[in-house]
Amino acid sequence: NTNRNSSKQGGRLQVIANFFQNLAPTRRGSQSQNTQQSDSPVPPEQSTSHTDLLPPISSSHLIASKSHNTSYASHAYLSSPRDLSPGQKNSIVITNSPSPIRRTVEQFREDVLRAKESGNWQPVLDFYSAAFDSFIELNKTFKKDPEKEYKTAENHGIQIEFVNTVYDSLMKVPNEVSKETLKAIINCLLKDKRPHGKDDLRAYLILLQNPQFSSLSAYVIFAHLLRQIASLSDHDHHFLVHWIKQLQKDRFRGILERLHNFIACRLFPPNPEDLPSLGKCTWWIPSATKVMALFNAANNLTSPVPLVPHTDFYNSTLDHLDLMAEYYAWQNPSSHAGFSFCQYPFILSIAAKRMILQKDSEQQMIIQARRSLVAKVQRRQLPDVGMLFLNLTVRRSHLVSDSLNEIAHKQHDLKKKLKVSFAGEPGLDMGGLTKEWFLLLIRKIFHQEYGMFTYDKRAGVHWFSLAPCENYQEFNLVGVISFHILMGLAVYNSINLDVRFPSVCYRKLLSPAVVPFHNPRATVGVTTSSLDDLKKMMPDVARGLQDLLEYDGNVEEDFELSFQMLRPEEVEMLVCGNPTLVMSELKKVTIYDGYFWDVVLHLPLEMQKKLLLFATGSDRVPIGGMGEMTFKISRINDPDLLPMSHTCFNQLVLPPYKTRKILKHKILTAIQNAEGFGLE
Predict the structure, then answer these.
(1) CA distance 88 to 110
(2) Which residue(s) pair with 514 in the sheet?
(3) What's phi and psi for 298, nearest 5 deg?
(4) Which of 194, 184, 179, 218 is nearest to 57 (CA)?
(5) In angstroms, rounded to a whole number, what is the distance separating the alpha carbons of residues 149 and 161?
(6) Which of 114, 168, 425, 519 is the one with CA 20 to 30 A from 192?
(7) Burial class (CB in 10 A: 0-12, 13-18, 19+), 453
(8) What domains, with CATH codes, occur in the chain?
(9) CA-wise closest residue to 618 among 490, 500, 497
């Protein structure tokens, strides 16, 4: 077995030698000797649950075929230095004189400065070649104390300033130095395929920060680094996550951007011939995505404020994939072998998640309707169109009770398309009546007089009422239906609700369920909360507690008190839409001649929202902005009428009013008296 492993390793090194033979002059004798010494057997890859997605490195992955060797070689390195004058570039000298490798930050900066002035880059080249030649050398170079082990997750033991200085300088050195650095990294990855301790994890973290991996020409090497990191054990990943969260914000964001670009270029390469064929490196994208998952976990640990917003993890390139195929592969792992981006939802944008949710909702509606139709036929009953929908008929005077009763008795139809009708009113629901029903019901339930929720004006959010409840069953029915089913129905039917819960509420919805004492059939999420969460829903109480925490005296004696998948933000956006209204954006997607917009754009924001509600049935902006909305203004030839609307089609009907003053008066009259169907 030892001989066979040695033979395989020798074959890999021969491939590397062939890979670089035409790039530059042969490496110095000492470096060639280092290469030969690395022919020792390499331990086999450690087994993980992801080995089917992340196959071991092989020469066929590094170089797709012999015919591609030249093209890969020609793109293997970064461009020439940017900070050298033409005279300095022509006077670059590389000699074989020995140079000390162990340097401090100040010594290294002096070496670079002298190299720029003299054109002799040999000391700098020697430093990069030696420092990146193995994991051992990386630790000797960048470890705070080479003799200390640093085995805790709280301290990575890396000289961050030195690493930053070395990498910043690497982008300004001659091309030859860049090439030698990448050659050293290849040797490093081949020698140290399997980590044996925390020093090896530390080396991975140092290599990840290399800015050379921003270049398409270095993607082959970057891919193998990502594969090795992705294949680590969960225990090693735990340490890496805690070390990653200690990175500076700009370095963290830089690595994240490189991972995004790597995935995007692998999916849609600008020049396909620059990279190996996708069929020969299917492990590239899973490796990069799993490494990005480590950064996402690290970002979530940096509370209360993350290093970067969660939206920085969105990769908009994925919006152009067949997302439903990704979704079905994730939902049916037995029938679809391989990787799916849905396994890592942090990388999918809110637009991608909304599209998946809408498509899945439509399919579920079709499935439910088909089942109802088949059941009717099997019972030899005449099918009707109404059975294909979730039909709710309610009275305006008993809106809440009728709605709750209808929903409670039609639980089996909740996945069908929703259709609403108001008793005694003519109107065919093409979407507008559904919008109005949601709006009116939410307003009734969340009104303080109903007693279900309270509203904090300073925070601008609702919360569950703390007042004692006389009828627990009714309270539970309203709570479950309004908080769970109504939100689910709204998202399922692509309706934005005017509900204002703090983010902890949506985090609670997505938390694991437990069985409460009072109602064994209900599932309630349990989540951790903090003082920052309290500030968002009860700022006055939170401020008092903050003052109490900062109090220097003895609290007990002085006060006589004692104390015993989708993201939450994304769920809020899906349920509520975007509360920010920019009416000028709506103007851009509307074709209209006249002074309508002159009047509307000068209305107060509250009146603009009421106008949007009057015309579309919702005062919220779609997630993607006004550009996703279709808005039509049509004409009716009776100047005595008030403006009218068809909320099903987002259509506003305007008579030809003679003056701006009349138009403004009529619009304000209409939007302030807009409840009901067929108002004139």
Answers:
(1) 17
(2) 524
(3) -65, -40
(4) 194
(5) 19
(6) 168
(7) buried
(8) 2-305 (no CATH), 384-537 (3.90.1750.10), 578-671 (3.30.2410.10)
(9) 497
According to DSSP, residue 277 is labeled -
In the block, tokens 């003299």 appear at 118
**pLDDT tens track for 121-140:** 999 999 999 999 999 899 89
Which one of 342, 469, 576, 648 is the catalytic residue?
648
- Which residues, including other chains, have CB under 8 Å from residue 253's CB and lie 6 or more apart? 307, 308, 312
CA 565 to chain centre: 11
Predicted TM-score (pTM) of this structure: 0.63
* Catalytic residue status for 648: yes
Q: Which of 607, 612, 587 is nearest to 598 (CA)?
A: 587
pLDDT digits (tens, 9 = 90+) for 198-226: 888 999 999 999 999 999 999 999 999 99
Q: Which pLDDT tens digit goes with each residue over 269-295?
A: 888 788 888 888 889 999 999 999 999
Which residues, other chains included, contact 499 with Cβ-Cβ below 8 Å and sequence gap of 6+?
Answer: 442, 446, 462, 487, 575, 576
pLDDT higher at 198 or 43: 198
Q: 152, 146 in Cβ contact below 8 A?
A: no
Residue pair 272/75 in contact by the 8 Å Cβ criterion: no
Give the separation between CA 81 and CA 115, rounded to whole angstroms.
Answer: 13
Q: Does residue 508 register a pLDDT over 50?
A: yes
